[in-house]
Predict the structure of Class I SAM-dependent methyltransferase.
Amino acid sequence: MDDGFRALQDWLAQTRDEPLEAMGAFFDARIGDYEAHMSPWRAHYAWMAALLPDGIETLLDVGCGTGLELDEIFARFPALHVTGVDLSGEMLAALRRKHPNRALTLWQADYFAQPFGDSRFDAAVSFETLHHFPAAQKARLFAKIRDSLRPGGVYLQCDYEAKTQQIEDLLFAECARRRARDGIAPDVFVHFDTPLTLEHEMQAMRDAGFARVELVGYLPEDDHTPMIRAVR
């Protein structure tokens, strides 16, 4: 048993009696310090922006939050038309305040249920939003993202992974235990991290029908937040 797994077990034991929070309410309540909390990923935002193809005009941002990745993306593509979807109205309002003059279409919605349209976007991104859901549910979302892209369109995802199958299994089991304890149905979104292994994440994208799925890599001193590129 490695130190990381033992530390995770200790943290789960310490927090085992904490109630689960609804996803949208969780982020609405933390709008004040959200961007400071996410500041360690500044280099990843810039990396994502740099990886987008030249000449794109339309972008889908899945789980856009306050638009931390969009700060960097707009710096490179100031005329970009962005459609963003997020559960949190507070997060979307903050995004709108930051970028009042950008071409933004914002949907406060469940991105699993919200229609994205067909062949509508040149590219799509998601950043640190999908580590709460099982592979089958992600595959259905990835299929919607794929369909929303124009032929040859690129989807970039940066999210943290479960480094081992043991970690993935432990977190899904603990989430299920807490749901049962709190009487929360499986289809209700709660804020509890259940990342997949890299292999399972990429397979879910392949199952969604992307023509090519590849690991771009990791930034130095970060071996758990991969950048993945999928091409329609």
In short: The mean pLDDT is 96. Strands lie at 58-62, 81-86, 103-108, 121-127, 149-158, 212-217, 227-231. The chain is about 40% helix and 20% strand.
